[in-house]
Amino acid sequence: MGDIFPRGRVSVAGASTFGVGEMPGHSTIEMAGKAVQLALADAAIGLPEVDGLFIALPDDLFAGLSLAQYLGLHPRFTDNNRAGGASFMSHLVTAVTMLEAGYLDCAVIAYGANQRSSGGKLSTPARPDRWDAPYNPMYPLSFYALAAARHMHQYGTTREELASVAVAAREWANTNPEAFAKGPLSIEDVVNSRLISSPIRARDCCLVTDGAAAMVLTRTDRAKDGPRPLVPILGAAAATWYNSVTQADDITVTAAAESGPRAMAMAGLTPGQINTVQLYDAFTINTILFLEDLGFCPKGEGGKFVASGAISPGGSLPVNTNGGGLSCCHPGMYGMFAMVEAVRQMRGEAANQIAGAKTALAHGNGGTLSAQATVIFGNAETI
Amino acid sequence: MSGPAAEWDAALAEGRFLIQQPVDGSRAVFPPRAFAPGTGGELEWVEASGLGTVYSATWIQRKPPEPPYNVVLVDLAEGARMMGRVDGVTPETLHIGMAVKARIIAGETPVIVFDPVEQAHG
Question: Which contacts (CB < 8 Å, 24+ apart) does range B66-72 have?
């Protein structure tokens, strides 16, 4: 037993972003609260109907309680799961199963952060553990650098292949009005950018922006009568293998190799049946690792796959069609933004809409390649 | 009675690099635990040989004129992996697969670092 998922029985009734890019003068809870308000308006659902709150904030260990207070609700349940950028996909797993069980009727998942306006540096309470800390790795950057260095060694992945991930993200961002980083970006720009923790350079890194996002989930029998196109949730799986990637058996294989196949089995889909992928690209190596682990190309061939143009506009597998964390926005824990872009694709309202897309995979990553969670969304035709 | 991490600290303060070996003979465990991860089996302390191989490496850049410093992952001969640094190397000479040996730098907070192992010339 295990991994029984109510395929298509719960849907996204509302979705929103708020303050993507720069939104000075707002606290994290204000950002998240505004996103919730917008998502509820999108769903045409009143605030008093919300009975489950799911949230992680960068600066608030009691974020679920804070959101209940801010919204003025007495929810039946709050969940403050902190699996880093995978938190929100994990929240969704809990919310879907609770909605299906009838424990909840209307769940909200939210995130908000003011990383850019509050100082311009990634703000996180996370630190290397006591076994890694004596060597002063940059957290989390050096941990990803160690994965990238090993991937290059083990499979011959090149610097230029890594750079092509950033270039593809920028190409998508250039035609997305919401994206923060726009303008030309070449392979040469990336490989000549400032070295930070080898092999990772400045342009291999996600942005530091403000931004908030929220989604409203209800059972599908209610959502189908809502004002927005139906976006049923077809599968969702979280996988956690460790906290520090130091403990990986093979640092080039992440728990996405577990969460992806589990989510796709729930959805009854294979990688070839996924029309677009939104994944957490904190660094260029992430996109390569996750596309391999999720089954979109063989292990070790991710570099060649991304450099072929497959993930770019016009490619065979549109990835991070909003520009991703590398060029659209990265207010810390990015997971919500990957899911909202997937929802927009399923509704047919994305800035870079993929014609005919019926399935979208959103993948979150937390910690140092530690926690992975995959969600598969569909449209009304998929149930 | 201390937990395994404190026992490990106490040994390191005495200049001993300990590692845990599952009694069923499976590969060694680090960081220290109260029982074998994944199985719950019994562990016993053994002296680490200190020998290892660089599994991955990164050089962290600092503002010039401060030189970059390295952070590595080392696969210990006993099978566990740990973070560390390799002394006496440059970005040109440090490489994945390099044989290294642990050395304890004594002090208020002792730390384990690694030195390259001279390969025997045939």
Answer: B68/A198, B69/A136, B70/B94, B71/A135, B71/A136, B71/A137, B71/A142, B71/A146, B71/A197, B72/B100, B72/B114
Confidence at residue B31, expressed as pLDDT on a 0 to 100 scale: 97
Among the CATH numbers 2.40.50.840, 3.40.190.10, 3.50.50.60, 3.60.10.10, which is that of B4-116?
Answer: 2.40.50.840
Q: Which CATH architecture has domain A10-120+207-382?
A: 3-Layer(aba) Sandwich (3.40)
Enumerate residues 6+ apart whose C-beta is below 8 A from A125.
A58, A59, A61
- Which candidate in A130, A131, A135 is best for mutational testing of the B interface (most B CBs within 10 A)? A135
Given a cut of 50, whether residue B112 has pLDDT beyond it is yes
- Give the ipTM: 0.96
Q: Which pLDDT score, from 0 to 100, does residue B1 have?
A: 76
A49 CB-near residues (< 8 Å, 6+ apart):
A105, A106
A137 touches chain B (CB under 8 A): yes
Type of residue found at A184: P
Mean per-residue pLDDT pooled into runs of 10, chain A (383 residues)? 95 98 95 98 98 95 97 98 95 98 98 89 81 97 98 98 98 98 98 98 97 98 97 98 94 98 98 98 98 98 98 98 98 96 98 98 96 98 97
Chain B contact for A131, CB < 8 A? yes
Inter-residue contact A45 to A328 (CB < 8 Å): no
Q: How many CA atoms within 13 Å lie on the side-chain side of B17?
A: 20
The CA distance from A135 to A124, in Å, is: 19
User: Within 10 A of B64 (CB to CB), how many other CB atoms are there?
Assistant: 7
Choosing among A127, A194, A198, A201, which should be mutated to test the B contact, i.e. which has the most B CBs within 10 A?
A198
pLDDT of residue A121: 67
b/e for A165-187, b at 16 or more Cβ within 10 A?
bbbbbbbbbbebebbbbeeebeb
Candidate from B60, B81, B109 with C-beta closest to A246: B81
- List the 74-93 stretch of B: residues with Cβ below 8 A of A: 81-85, 91
Q: Are B92 and B67 in contact (CB under 8 A)?
A: no
In chain B, what percentage of residues exceed pLDDT 90? 95
